[in-house]
Specification:
Helix content is about 65%, strand content about 0%. It is an all-alpha fold and about 70 residues long. The chain has a domain at about 1-40. The termini are far apart.
């Protein structure tokens, strides 16, 4: 009988530790989410940023299609 009580107490300790760690993990992830949610993903670049690719109206659709097949995009 005492071993059964000891087993139940050990199971309860593991359960409590699991619940505490799960809640800690949840609130850390929630805090990180709220921190990164404030960042603006589409803000204009700062400093010496240059535009890499612009819209080129000179190329015809055959050339664009060949680039598509060559690059596999």
């Amino acid at each position: 009988m005492p071993s059964f009580v000891k087993l139940c107490l050990d199971v309860m300790k593991i359960f409590v530790i699991f619940v505490v760690c799960t809640l800690l993990f949840y609130y850390v992830i929630k805090g990180l989410h709220s921190e990164y949610e404030k960042l603006d993903r589409y803000e204009y670049p700062q400093g010496n940023a240059i535009k890499v690719m612009g819209e080129n109206k000179e190329t015809d659709w055959w050339e664009r299609l060949s680039i598509f097949f060559r690059l596999g995009e």
